[in-house]
Specification:
The chain is mostly beta strands. Helices cover about 0% and strands about 50% of the residues. The chain contains no helices and eleven strands. Strands 2, 4, 5, 6, 9, 10 and 11 form a seven-stranded mixed sheet that branches. It has a four-stranded antiparallel sheet with strand order 1-3-8-7, with no helix packed on it. It is globular and about 40 Å long. The model has no long low-confidence stretch (mean pLDDT about 95).
Length: about 120
């Protein structure tokens, strides 16, 4: 089992920044990859950013590329999402996910943290 706990969400004005954290615990960690997803009201959950745990290779959705940065601290077992130049359309619940095998299927999820960007 893997447990994920997100933190760092909040209310910010457009153009501002936030940093989300995802703390990981559990016996079956590390997973091959970790990711951040987001779900806006009335929409499906969508991929935002991912990182391979061992090599630190990152990948992003086009909508956040150049504004968001995903990183991980292996010793702290924590994944971060630095979000800059935030837009109102970034408003969503942000979820941390764990992909155990690296096949792109996320097996574990956190409870989510709300990010609201005001115009």
């Amino acid at each position: 089992q893997v447990q994920l706990v997100e933190s760092g969400g909040g209310l910010v004005q457009a153009g501002g920044s936030l940093r989300l954290s995802c703390t990981i615990s559990g016996r079956t960690f590390p997973s091959a990859a970790m990711g951040w997803f987001r779900q806006a009201p009335g929409k499906e959950r969508a991929f935002a950013a991912g990182i391979s745990w061992s090599g630190g290779i990152t990948y992003y959705a086009d909508s956040v590329k150049g504004r968001f940065t995903i990183s991980r601290d292996i010793a702290k077992r924590t994944v971060y999402l630095q979000m800059n130049s935030l837009k109102p359309e970034d408003t969503a619940v942000y979820f941390c996910g764990a992909d155990r095998s690296g096949a792109g299927t996320y097996d574990y999820w956190g409870q989510g943290t709300q990010v609201t960007v005001s115009s």
